[in-house]
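Might I ask for a little of your time on a matter of protein folding? The record follows directly beneath this note:
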Amino acid sequence: MDLLNHHLVRAGFRVPDLEKSAAHAIDVLGLQIADRDESSIALALPGQSACLVLRQADASEFDFMALHTTEANLAEIRRRIDAAGVEATAARELDGDGLRVYAPNGVAVEIGVGEGHVRNAAEREAGPVIGSLDHLSFAAEDPGAFRDFFIDILGFRLSDSVLDRRHWLRCSPNHHTVAVFAGKNGIHHYAFETDDIRGLARLGDLLAARDQNFIWGPGRHGLGANIFTYHLDPAGAILEVTSDMLQVETEEEWEAEVWEDTLKSGVMWGPLPPAGFRDLSIPASSVAEAAR
């Protein structure tokens, strides 16, 4: 069975300043409040369901990621979970039929039956037109175990690796929906996408007007070939806004490549990453709870 039909639909964070984090997502990304209560705010692209959920907390933590897939795929994932003896519970964040599992680095992953996103194209007066939530890049003390979990249990495929320390995984034509780097268990960055480099220029202009700046970029990655920018959100999480991600349109013609650990994998053109960039991460909420 071909499981390459999952769609990243939502990510959640716990943040120390709920209003400030929500305002950043609204002003910089063009998200809108879809729902809120005293301790949480759900944000969505215009006319869509929530793609980003923020919850008040004492410290910054990654809360969950959520995928939509088909009924047949979910049934196959349940079979794999049972065969592997992986603990699963009912989904908390997704409506309808779905489940929650935890990746080896403690990240909560939900997957349920549902459609993929409808790409947003609503114009804005300032800032980039954000099409969708694009991908999530995690850190893991055992990146190989993380990779194998997403492949063997959730049906992702390996797109590329850098030695055995970094892996890029896909569940659709997008070169990667999930990536993992060696590091402390948690999330390294989350990414939204815009059409092209003109959208990234609009983002830079908007950040400058807010007395903010990129911490890395613009540039083009070797792996994935996407044009990238990175800046910090108010909770201290790294937010990538990207464009032109490589699309794997013909599965039979794609072979995963193992890249050497050279600058070309990270930067085809553009500035070099700042010192310590790969070491930045915030913990998964389950990891943080276990440490408390």
